[in-house]
Prior knowledge:
The protein is mainly α. It has helices spanning about 1-10, 15-30, 35-45, 45-65, 80.
Amino acid sequence: MAKEHRAINRVLVTLNEKSRRRFVGLLAWQWGRGSLERLWEITGLSRPTIRRGRVEVQQVERRTERGRVRKVGAGRFAVEKNSRGC
């Protein structure tokens, strides 16, 4: 068990805030019931942060199932809107 804890924390220190939250959220989603408390003890991340990561991971999965990668309206503007009167 301690090996697993060290491995998780070794990965976490290499990630930025968003990736860290999503990685721990993925673990919480995979481990199921009781995982929030266990991951809080292992990583030291707050429970709301872990919950938020779990929600983000679930939303990404739902979006990719529908075929969308970006949110509606995201991305570059059309060339016509981007030009400055040329």
